[in-house]
Amino acid sequence: MSDEEHHFESKADAGASKTYPQQAGTIRKNGFLVIKGRPCKVVEVSTSKTGKHGHAKCHFVAIDIFNGKKLEDIVPSSHNCDVSLLTENGNTKDDLRLPTDENLLGQIKSGFAEGKDLVVTVQSAMGEEQICALKDIGPKS
Questions:
Q1: Structurally, how many domains does the chain consist of?
Q2: Where does this protein have coiled-coil stretches (predicted)?
């Protein structure tokens, strides 16, 4: 045996808890899908007829839920796609960054300055999070 110490640093992440496989033919409009490694909301799905090679194809048009960019993918309907897990457990979260949307940011800042109770909606998928909506639930009690 060698007396040398070995240190290994893992930089890989299987992402097993961030996505799950789902057959392409079962994914519908308003569902969530991973395209080019980005979590997206499906805005359009079209399916071609079975061709001479035996596979119908699904054409997905989707919007990245964090940056709003449009992405497209074509997948055989019988093949699996990665679908992003959007979990909701109800725990209070206090480590969120403020949104970059100036209108939403202004509403949050003025609401806190006025002492209101605010509830924010947070989108979370594949290790990214963002505040996407705000609800005023009245004056602080």
A1: 2
A2: none
